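Hey, sorry to bother you again with one of my protein questions. I've been staring at a protein lately and its backbone has me curious. I owe you a coffee for this, so here goes:
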Amino acid sequence: MFSVKELVESSTTMSVPSNYVCHKTPEDSMLYYETENIPTIDFHQLTSSNPNERSKAIQQLGDACRDWGFFMVINHGVSETLREKVLREGQSFFDLSKEEKMEFAGEKILDPIRYGTSFNVMVDKALFWRDYLKCLVHPHFNAPSKPPALRETVEEYMRKGKEVVEELLKGISLSLGLEENYIHKRMNVELGCKVFVINYYPPCPKPELVMGLPAHTDHGLLTLLQQNQLGGLQIQHKGKWIPIDPLPNSLLINTGDHMEILTNGKYKSVVHRAVVNTKGTRISVGTAHGPNLDTIVDPAPELVGDDNPALYRSITYRDYILLQQNNELDTKTCLERIRI
């Protein structure tokens, strides 16, 4: 396997190899909104003992999930020190020698630890300008043994992130008119599958020719995301691409396909992509929080009725991940495959 990091470090030319040149679709060239105000959720208010404060935050959370599928969380309690450390240790992993990184290459989609490049080199028509490390971190924790501090850092980061996501899921349940532990119980979140991903996007001499990751949605209920100082995340909203410039010390959250399935389309998963730049390496750290792998996911009966029929057929979380990861990453095509 030849990583993008190796390619950049070994190349003295200003060209992009032809197998990385992406065919751009009309959707890729959509106009940009530069000044949209992304929804912001104050975690203090969401967990407040003041019923009015909490009720207002739950309303804002529901609106964000319905209208955007994306929001920023402030006052979340995950320290800046820890967030910077996980980015730094992520960089240290990619700085290991090729031989050391290949110890964690993995072979199968649901291997506990998997280092790789692009998305799925077996099906990608063009390779993406991205290397990655993926770890299944729940219900059983897995992380590389190198570099030495990575495992402990990821474990602490996951513990803090779990607290944030679990409160968000309670708020989302309430925003849907359900009891606050509804999603936890129905999706077996306590034994849920969490996939931790570090994405490494090196600088590119011709960023307009390549994609870090193309337009896609995430599997799972919610994805928690943070990035280093170099932006590159863009979300699709009302037919436009919106570059995300997060507030200082905020965490980014997007809704996944299984939130859309569970809510019968009321809260839709957001289409997003990653673009690269000429300036430097962008690192993002994402955690997909999903149901247990063997949980059958279908629309909640409480959100289905005569005037609102079920939109999606039942499928286990495991089968959905395998379906998505074994095919091209292409907007919402995986979700369309299970649409009734």
Summary: Residues 222 and 255 are 5 Å apart (CA to CA).
